[in-house]
């Protein structure tokens, strides 16, 4: 490495044309002498002699001592020649030299334009007066303004709100500031350009963030949608977390859990509930659970089985009567509504209630008050009403058999309990539940239900629903003597096996043991309907009215 100190004499300092001339000469010498030349200013900044902007930015002034350095094959000659050049007046000798300087400058300008335009960030350069000197292609795209329009204009008029004037005045840069340029959101760095601590201009480098903002907005929408979905899922799980009062209700099928979720929610309110479902699906069980899960749990739960009470007595049963209100009314009687005060009244099989009573019930629902039969004192009660039916109330309303206004008053929270054949997956759970519960209650140690027996139960349709299943398990526990329930312990219509005494009604249980009366009754009605096809024909043979046949058939879920 060769090194030499020279005195820079050019009166105008190292201006851009002088620098271009040095660059052009350095190129020639390097080529000819196979060397590399460098220039170092007084402050120790060293740059290649062929880099125009770098050389220019050394800001060499007249009288500055500068160092020339050279390496390569003929570094000594290169050093000597270049040093002499620097000490000279740096003016072009002829037109040819002038042309070469021009082309260096043009080439350099073109190169910087190409570089600036290939940057994807917007770039605006202003001078100390805030006049735009550079406006690259990305700046054109982001601001929607053309370079031709921008260059030479004051940036504060062109793009108000950039904040560049503060930078020009204060000299401190600002970084990653969110701004709006001509309606477009951008993130901008504002940097002053200083030479010898003097601000000679400023640069704004900025990126369009409208796409990012849109993505963020979409993300936010998406996140909100996810949050909403999570919330709903949580709600669903929460709603399926039932009060302990529902523990007694066995079953995991979706349909049952959905019904219980509604019931559980209804328990938290005082709304009237209407439980729908075939006979034996657990309507009373659910009504009790709603009561027990409600704030009224310490109050009474009063059940009224509407069809079991003759219609003539139902009014006094519900509302009570005064002494002497009718023949046989020897004492004052408190009705079920009064008894249920502060608690819940469960009106089972409401579809069987006569129209007169429906009207009276409607008044209680509307006004929460009534009079005892034969009395004139108005009694106010605070009673929550839960009604249940296995009848098609809508059809009854259409036929004029059930008051429409009462229907709407009752149907505030409808709960539909599925039949057992709609939730067959619950049969094993229920069967095991009843085996355990009933064998304990009956003092028998029945520990298993054989897979064969379970299979038979799974294939049966259970018209009498859970109640029928419960009865069948009870019966089987009574029949078995080896601690397990097998197909032989099931009735033949479930096991598919003809019992040895088939044809003899009394031997339903197959071993001469008697069964509960209702089972005989159900079997008789089932057989009669199967054989005679109509209520009338069956009733004639059985010697009872067709109404009774119809009522029993409904009771046992045979229609
Ligand atoms: N999911 C269940 N889990 C456990 N036991 C049940 C279930 N469903 C019903 N039961 C039992 O089945 C029997 C019949 O239930 P419940 O009396 O509540 O039915 P229901 O629908 O009110 O019948 P009906 O319409 O004939 O009055 C009861 O012994 C009840 O305990």
Mean pLDDT score: 88
Domain tally: 4
Distinct ligand kinds: adenosine-5'-triphosphate
Indicate the CATH class of the largest domain: Alpha Beta
Largest sheet: 5 strands, antiparallel
Shape category: elongated
Pfam family, one: PAS_9
Domain Sigma-54 factor interaction: 249-478
InterPro entries: AAA+_ATPase (IPR003593), AAA_lid_NorR (IPR058031), Homeodomain-like_sf (IPR009057), HPr-like (IPR000032), HPr-like_sf (IPR035895), HTH_TyrR (IPR030828), P-loop_NTPase (IPR027417), PAS (IPR000014)
Organism: Fervidicola ferrireducens
Can I get a quick summary?
The chain has 559 residues and is α/β, with parallel strands linked by helices. The radius of gyration is 50 Å and the shape is elongated.
Question: What does this protein look like?
Answer:
The protein has 559 residues and is α/β, with parallel strands linked by helices. The chain has four domains: 2-110, Histidine-containing Protein, Chain: A (2-Layer Sandwich), CATH 3.30.1340; 119-208, Beta-Lactamase; 244-416, P-loop containing nucleotide triphosphate hydrolases (Rossmann fold, 3-Layer(aba) Sandwich), CATH 3.40.50.300; 420-515, Helicase, Ruva Protein, domain 3 (Orthogonal Bundle), CATH 1.10.8.60. The strands form six sheets. A five-stranded antiparallel β-sheet has the order 6-5-9-8-7. Strands 11-14-17-10-18 form a five-stranded parallel β-sheet. It has a four-stranded antiparallel β-sheet with strand order 1-4-2-3, covered by helices on one side. Helix 1 runs antiparallel to helix 3 (75-87) and helix 21 crosses helix 22 (535-542). The radius of gyration is 50 Å and the shape is elongated. Adenosine-5'-triphosphate (ATP) binds next to helix 11 and helix 19. Residues 249-251, 277, 279-285, 348, 390, 430, 466-467, 470 line the site of adenosine-5'-triphosphate (ATP). Pfam families: AAA_lid_14, HTH_50, PAS_9, PTS-HPr, Sigma54_activat. It comes from Fervidicola ferrireducens. This is HTH-type transcriptional regulatory protein TyrR. Residues 1-98 form the HPr domain.
């Amino acid at each position: 490495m060769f090194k030499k100190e020279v005195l820079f004499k050019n009166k105008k300092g190292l201006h851009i044309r002088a620098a271009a001339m040095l660059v052009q000469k350095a190129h020639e010498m390097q080529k000819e002498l196979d060397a590399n030349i460098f220039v170092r200013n007084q402050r120790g900044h060293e740059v290649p002699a062929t880099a125009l902007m770098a050389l220019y930015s050394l800001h060499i002034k007249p009288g500055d001592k500068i160092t020339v350095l050279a390496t390569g094959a003929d570094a000594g000659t290169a050093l000597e020649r270049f040093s002499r050049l620097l000490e000279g007046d740096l003016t072009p000798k002829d037109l040819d030299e002038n042309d070469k300087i021009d082309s260096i400058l043009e080439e350099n300008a073109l190169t910087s334009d190409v570089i600036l335009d290939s940057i994807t960030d917007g770039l605006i350069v202003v001078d100390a007066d805030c006049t735009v000197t550079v406006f690259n292609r990305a700046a054109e795209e982001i601001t929607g303004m053309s370079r031709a329009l921008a260059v030479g204009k004051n940036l504060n008029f062109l793009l108000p709100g950039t904040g560049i004037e503060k930078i020009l005045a204060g000299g401190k840069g600002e970084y990653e500031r969110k701004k709006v340029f001509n309606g477009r959101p951008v993130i901008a760095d504002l940097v002053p350009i200083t030479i010898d601590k003097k601000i000679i201009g400023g640069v704004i480098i900025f990126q369009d963030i409208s796409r990012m903002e849109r993505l963020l907005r979409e993300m936010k929408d998406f996140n909100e949608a996810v949050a909403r979905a999570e919330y709903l899922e949580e709600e669903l799980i929460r709603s399926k977390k039932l009060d302990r009062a529902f523990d007694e209700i066995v079953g995991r099928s979706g349909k049952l859990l959905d019904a219980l979720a509604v019931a559980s929610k209804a328990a938290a309110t005082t709304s009237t509930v209407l439980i729908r479902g075939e006979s034996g699906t657990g309507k009373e069980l659910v009504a009790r659970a709603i009561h027990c899960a409600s704030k009224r749990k310490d109050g009474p739960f009063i059940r009224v089985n509407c069809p079991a009470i003759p219609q003539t007595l139902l009014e006094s049963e519900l509302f009570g009567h005064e002494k002497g209100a009718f023949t046989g009314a020897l004492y004052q009687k408190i009705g079920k509504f009064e008894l249920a005060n502060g608690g819940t009244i469960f009106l089972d099989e409401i579809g069987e209630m006569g129209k007169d009573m429906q009207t009276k019930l409607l008044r209680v629902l509307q006004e929460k008050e009534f009079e005892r039969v034969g009395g004139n004192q108005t009694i106010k009660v605070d009673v929550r009403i839960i009604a249940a039916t296995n009848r098609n109330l809508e059809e009854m309303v259409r036929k004029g058999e059930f008051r429409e206004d009462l229907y709407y008053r009752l149907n505030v929270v409808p709960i539909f309990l599925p039949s057992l054949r709609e939730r067959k997956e619950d049969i094993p759970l229920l069967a095991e539940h009843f085996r355990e519960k009933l064998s304990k209650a009956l003092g028998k140690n029945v520990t298993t239900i054989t897979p064969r027996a379970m299979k038979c139960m799974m294939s049966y349709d259970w018209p009498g629903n859970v109640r029928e299943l419960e009865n069948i398990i009870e019966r089987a526990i009574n029949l078995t003597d080896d601690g397990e329930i097998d197909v032989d312990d099931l009735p033949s219509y479930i096991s598919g096996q003809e019992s040895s005494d088939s044809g003899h009604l009394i031997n339903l249980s197959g071993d001469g043991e008697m069964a509960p009366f209702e089972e005989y009754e159900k079997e008789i009605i089932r057989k009669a309907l199967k054989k005679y096809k109509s209520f009338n024909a069956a009733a004639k043979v059985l010697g009872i009215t067709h109404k009774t046949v119809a009522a029993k058939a409904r009771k046992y879920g045979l229609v």
